[in-house]
Structure formats: C-alpha cells, structure tokens
Write a structure and sequence with these properties.
Shape: globular
Number of strands: 7
Radius of gyration: 17 Å
Number of helices: 9
Structural class: alpha/beta
Bound molecules: S-adenosylmethionine
CATH class: Alpha Beta
Number of domains: 1
CATH topology: Rossmann fold
CATH architecture: 3-Layer(aba) Sandwich
CATH superfamily: Vaccinia Virus protein VP39
C-alpha cells in the first residue's frame, strides 16, 4: 500500500516556483481574478462548500481564499454568532476580499490574515471546519502533507475539512496531458496541477466522509470532505 502511494506521489508534477513568485502572481492578477476563473473554479468550490454543511455559530477557516467569494458564503452560513478566518499569501487578494466582505455587510465576522498556509498562525483545536478550493494543488508535492497536518492541528477533534481540487485520480486524458504540459512549461503562471486528493487527505490521517469526482471544464476534479478523528489524548499534548 505504502509503495503504491509512493509511486502515486512520484507521478505528481512538482511546482518549481518560490512563495515570493506565487505572491507576485496572485498580487498581479487579484483585480481580475474573478473574471479569469469564474467559469472554471466557482461551481466545484460552491459544491464543496455545500458538502461541509456549515452551521450558525461555527468557527471556520478558509485557506487561499482568493477573491473571497467562498469566504463571503462561509460568513453568511455561520451567521452573526460565528467567526470566519481566512489566510492567503497575496496582499492583493486580501484587498479584493476585504472590499467584497464590506460590501456584503459581513466583514465584522471575518478575520483576514496574509501569510503562508504551510505555517498556520492559529492555535491547536480552534476550528469546527476548514475549507480549500483550487489551493491544495498549488503546494509543491512535499508540502501537501505539511499543509494537511497544519490544518489537522488547528481543527477541533471531529472538525471537518472540505477540499475541491484538480485530480489525477481518473487516469490520463489528452486534455489532462495538455494541461500538465502547460504547467511544466509555465509553472510560475499555471501553478495548480492535478494531485491525488482523497489519497493525500487519507495519508494525512483524516477519515474520509464524502468523495466525489467532478469535471472542471473537462479536467478531472475531486471534492472530498474528511474529519479529524481520533482520541482527544492524541492531540492534547500539542496544545498551549
Ligand atoms: C488558485 S487561487 C484559488 C482562490 C479561491 N480559493 C477560489 O477558489 O477562487 C489560490 C489562492 O491561494 C493563495 N495562495 C498561494 N500560495 C499560498 C500559500 N502558500 N499560502 C496561502 N495562500 C496561498 C493565492 O494567493 C490565491 O489566492
């Protein structure tokens, strides 16, 4: 099993660009991000958010919130008694999202933070749910387990993780090969690439609750909801 997972990991393409380059790219495209990606990313993101079944009063984290369309929905779902947090590496995305949340009248229940999700600035066992759409697949292969481990650390026991991502799970297709070719050629600009979503989440020690395969403009995607399961004693020594 381990060998199979290793061979799976080895056919995931690397993401050979620095965090500074990622920040520069997203800063640059933040004013037009919605127009560039609405047709590809919005539907699976909203499907994944629906699968998380957020409730009034919950504390929820979104990683890589981009222009903030999901963060706005999260803030609306948790109501006035809930609290949403968002972390994104791009200052430009922060500015766009802040404007969106102000306009929607929900900014008071959302805390935005600019930083790298590989080191989350939140305490252990803080969140009822965490969410990532079109973001897990832009971390380099070795960093995906680190990000998932960080998310697990900040989730409460029983907390849910919802992920929408491009996927390599459905095998090869001409379109997938073409997309991977563009990623290999321009990794600084086409930084997302297909990964094994469910497998990565399972390998990070979560329990899978729901999984679906979807199409993102003809490219394969996965929507996965998982929980941080286990006993409180497994996590207690890392608090404080
Ligand atoms: C492809 S966009 C997806 C945005 C949004 N989730 C959506 O579905 O429209 C990826 C987002 O992740 C952010 N990002 C990239 N690297 C990051 C990192 N290391 N830590 C936190 N956010 C990061 C980018 O700034 C960008 O806003």
């Amino acid at each position: 099993m381990k060998e199979r997972n290793q061979s799976k990991a080895s056919d995931i393409l690397p993401v050979p660009r620095t965090k500074a380059e990622a920040k520069r790219l997203y800063d640059r495209i933040s004013p037009v991000y919605d127009y560039l990606t609405r047709a590809f990313e919005r539907k699976p993101a909203e499907m994944a958010l629906g699968r998380l079944s957020l409730e009034e009063g919950e504390t929820v984290l979104e990683i890589g919130f981009g222009s903030g369309h999901c963060l706005q929905r999260i803030a609306e779902s948790i109501g006035k008694t809930g609290k949403a947090h968002g972390i994104d590496i791009s200052r430009g995305m922060l500015a766009v999202t802040k404007r969106r949340l102000d306009k929607a009248g929900v900014a008071d229940r959302v805390q935005l933070y600019r930083g790298d999700a590989a080191n989350l600035p939140y305490g252990d066992n803080t969140f009822d749910a965490a969410f990532m759409s079109s973001t897990l697949e832009l971390f380099d292969t070795g960093e995906i387990p680190r990000v998932l481990e960080e998310v697990k650390r900040v989730l409460k026991l029983g907390g849910r993780l919802g992920v929408a991502s491009m996927s390599k799970e459905n095998g090869e297709s001409a379109l997938l090969r073409l997309y991977e070719w563009t990623h290999k050629k321009w990794p600084k600009y086409v930084d997302c690439r297909p990964i094994y979503v469910e497998q990565s989440i399972r390998d990070a020690g979560y329990e899978i609750r729901t999984k679906e395969r979807v199409k993102l403009f003809g490219l394969p995607g996965e929507i996965v909801v998982a929980v941080k399961a286990g006993r409180a004693s497994e996590y207690a020594d890392r608090s404080g």
